Amino acid sequence: MEIDKVIAKVQRLLSLSSSSNANEAAAAMNAANKLIDQYRLSEADLSSNHSDLDPMMEDSDSIYETGRINPWKSTLVVVLAKHYGCAVFNNMTFPNGRKVSHYKLVGRKSDIAIVRYFFAYLMAECQRLCEKEAYGKGKVFANSYCFGFVAGIKQQFLESRKEAEKEATGNAIVAINRREEESKNFMNQLYRLKQSKGSSQSQTDYRAYSQGLEQGKSIHLGHGLNSGNSGVRLLGN
C-alpha cells in the first residue's frame, strides 16, 4: 500500500470518530499513529525480503526555509526526521549577502512524505495553540511552551512506536531502526557536511514548558493527515 493510500485510510478512520469525548479522541489519535507505524514496519519487512522497494533519495524541496532560524521549529524538523528514519541538513545560501537556511531531508520517499505531512500540521498547530496560551505572557513563555510542545510530540511518537512493534516481525523492527543511519550514510555520500550543534534556548519558563509538553503529548495528530497537504511548506521565522 502506498503512503497516500495510508493517509486516506487514516482520514476515514478519524472521520468516524467525531465525538467530543476525550477518551474517544485519544483512541482515534492512537489508532492513527499506530497505522502509520504499522505501514512503515510492514513496508520495511517487504524490503528486507525483496529488492529495495523504496530507494534512498534527497528531497527536491526544502521542508523549512528561513532567514532567521526559529529553534523550536528546527528542533521539530530534527525530531520528526529522526523518528521517521530520515537525515536532515541545513543547506545555507547567501542571496544578496543575506543568509537563508534551507532544511533538506534525505531518506526514503515514503518516510520523507510522512515527515512533511507531520511538520506542516504540527508547526501550524503549535503556533495556533501558542498564540492562544501565551498571549501577553512574553517571548520566554511562548518559546518555552513551543519547546515543551515538541518534547510532548516526541514522547507521543515513541509510545506509538512501541505499540506498533508488538505486532511487527523482528526483521521489520531491525530494518526500521537502522533507517536513520542509512539515511545519514547516503547523505554523507552526497555531501561533506560539518556536524552542527543542536538548537537550544537561553531561558526557560518551566511552567510554560510543562504546559506545552502536556499539549504535545495529547494533540490529535490525525487531523493533519490529509492527501492535500503533502506539498505544503510553511515558511517564516
Task: Annotate the secondary structure layout.
Blueprint: H1 3-15, H2 22-49, E1 56-58, E2 64-66, H3 71-83, E3 87-90, E4 101-108, H4 109-133, H5 139-165, H6 170-177, H7 179-190, H8 206-218
Antiparallel strand pairs: 1-4, 2-4, 3-4
Helix pairs in contact: 1-2, 2-5, 2-6, 3-4, 3-5, 4-5, 5-8
Descriptive report:
This protein is of the alpha+beta class. It has one domain (3-224). The protein contains 8 helices and 4 strands. It has helices spanning 3-15, 22-49, 71-83, 109-133, 139-165, 170-177, 179-190, 206-218; strands at 56-58, 64-66, 87-90, 101-108. Strands 1, 2, 3 and 4 form a 4-stranded antiparallel beta sheet that branches. Helix 1 runs antiparallel to helix 2 and helix 3 packs parallel to helix 5 (139-165). Residues 16-20 and 223-237 have low confidence and may be disordered.
Radius of gyration: 18 Å
Structural class: alpha+beta
Question: What distance lies between the first and last C-alpha atoms, to the nearest angstrom?
Answer: 36 Å
SSE series: HHEEHEEHHHHH
If you average the pLDDT, what whole number results? Answer: 75
User: DSSP helix count?
Assistant: 8
Q: Give the number of domains.
A: 1
- Shape estimate: globular
Strand content: 5-15%
Helical content band: 55-70%
| Annotation, overall tally of beta strands | 4
Largest sheet: 4 strands, antiparallel
Stretches where pLDDT is under 50 for at least 5 consecutive residues are: 16-20, 223-237
